[in-house]
Structures are given as structure tokens and as C-alpha cells.
Amino acid sequence: MHRSLLPLIASLGFLVALLQVPQLKAESPSAVVAREAQLVLKDHCAETGSRDSTVAAQSMTVVAETWSRISEIYARDGELVLLYWKGVLGWCLAQEQRAAEDLWEFLDREPGLPEHRAWVEDAERRLRILAEKDPKLKKKLQSKKKKKKKKKKKK
What we know:
Blueprint: H1 6-17, H2 29-45, H3 53-77, H4 80-92, H5 96-109, H6 117-131, H7 135-154
């Protein structure tokens, strides 16, 4: 991951994190962990790239623990929004391949809900950055764009 881009991406992610978690029951485990992910993104993601090893390690621990809970609850409940957060927190931990897989799956499964628009845009932005280093991912993104354009022309 481009560590110099991490603070910028974390800032963009913070803007997305300000959005409420849609379509989840207020007390559901998925809603709780999604809100937790929002806070972790805001408070710790950029710090995982800190020059101070102690700060970086502490932030990585917080992010990793939240990522683990999200993965566990996603495996059990399958809430789509958790797939987005798995990808984002994987990104924070420089787990680029896993982040790309989760974000890609989120985009594939996302049904076009208006309340997911900011997450879709953020996932696409993160994938474009990852694609700069991964030619296969770049090709996949280009193919998806072409398919999207064809769908719009048919409407």
C-alpha cells in the first residue's frame, strides 16, 4: 500500500464513516460492529502507518481486533455492509489482496441502494488505488467499467 496515501484515504474514509449504517436493526450485532468499524477507521486507520512504532502497533491491534469481529459476524450473519467494512479495515492493515477481494465482492453484491452510494464510491476509489500496483485487478476494474457503461446504454 502506498503509505503516503494512507492519511488521505483515511480522511476520505472518515467522511464515509460519518454516514449512518443503513438497514440494520439498531441493536443487531452487525449494526454494533459496523458502528465500531466507523470509529476505528476514524481513530486508528491513519495511525497504523505512523513512524512511531508504538503508536502504529497499538493502532494495528485495535484495527485487527475489530476486523476479526467483523469477519466473524459477517460469516455468521452475511450483512452486506460488513463486507465493505472488512475490506476497509483490511486496507488499513495493508492486507491489500484481502481488502481488494472484500471490496470487489461488496461491489458485485451491492444492489444499487442509494444509501450505499458513498460506500460504493469509496470502495471503487480504494480498488483504483490498489489496481495501480496489480495489473490483474486493473484489468478487472476496466472490464467492470465497460459492463457498467453497457448497462447504462441499455436503460
